[in-house]
């Protein structure tokens, strides 16, 4: 079976909440920017998705928007699932998200109060992926935030750091996931039963 994990990095930055709003709600309501809309149309035409049988998405606007053109092209429903959602930030208490990411990417158990560690996010996403693997499809697309994909993959491929001390995931010396250059992250993962066998990076670059 193949599962495609897909996340857009092209999210709108021009949405302003006039009232004090929880950061988790803000993340959920971010839409795609015009580049993201273009990417949604482009990935819908990719030949790698010709045999997609089912589409899943987390509840964020960005993921659903990214999935919509593929769903239209393949005449499939988008199965929006509340079990997958972005890694919870928690109470920042004056800290920046960049600082949180720095600590979390060096200690996968690190989390803020009311937040979620990468290992906790990984367990949650893995449980969802296991359910998808039991659904009996041959090829499935799953749209979720990039942080969720990162959390999932740290248990399956090599973890390292680049010259900027940013987290990089590699396989056979090839970069699979980093923080640069992609308009959309797309990973084709092959399973035998529930065993993770192989991964290909199909990401759309700038």
Walk me through this protein's architecture.
- This protein is α/β, with parallel strands linked by helices.
- It has six helices and ten strands.
- It is globular and about 45 Å long.
- The mean pLDDT is 92.
Q: What's the total count of β strands?
A: 10
Mean pLDDT score: 92
Approximate shape:
globular
Radius of gyration: 16 Å
End-to-end separation in angstroms reads 29 Å
Q: What is the H/E order?
A: EHHEHEHHEHEEEEEE
Class by SSE composition: alpha/beta
Helix segment tally: 6
Share of helical residues: 25-40%
Main beta-sheet annotation: 7 strands, mixed
Strand content: 25-35%
Give unreliable regions as ranges. Answer: none
Kindly summarize this structure in a few lines.
Helices cover 31% and strands 25% of the residues. It is α/β, with parallel strands linked by helices. Strands 1, 2, 3, 4, 8, 9 and 10 form a 7-stranded mixed sheet that branches.
Name the descriptors.
single chain, 206 residues, alpha/beta, seven-stranded mixed sheet, 25% strand, globular
């Amino acid at each position: 079976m193949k599962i495609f994990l897909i996340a857009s990095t092209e999210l709108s930055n021009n949405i302003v909440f006039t009232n004090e709003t929880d950061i988790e709600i803000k993340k959920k309501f971010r839409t795609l920017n015009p580049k993201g809309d273009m990417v949604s149309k482009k990935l819908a035409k990719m030949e790698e998705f010709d045999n997609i049988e089912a589409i899943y998405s987390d509840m964020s606007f960005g993921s659903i928007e990214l999935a919509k053109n593929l769903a239209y092209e393949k005449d499939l429903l988008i199965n929006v699932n509340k079990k997958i959602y972005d890694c919870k930030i928690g109470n920042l208490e004056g800290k920046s998200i960049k600082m949180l990411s720095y600590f979390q990417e060096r200690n996968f158990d690190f989390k803020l109060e009311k937040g979620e560690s990468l290992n906790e996010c990984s367990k949650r996403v893995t449980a969802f992926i296991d359910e998808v693997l039991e659904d009996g499809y041959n090829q499935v697309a799953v749209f979720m935030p990039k942080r969720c994909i990162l959390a999932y993959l740290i248990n399956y491929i090599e973890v390292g750091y680049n010259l900027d001390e940013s987290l990089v995931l590699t396989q056979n010396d090839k970069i699979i996931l980093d923080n640069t250059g992609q308009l959309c992250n797309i990973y084709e993962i092959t399973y035998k039963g529930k065993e993770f066998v192989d991964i290909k990076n199909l990401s759309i670059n700038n």
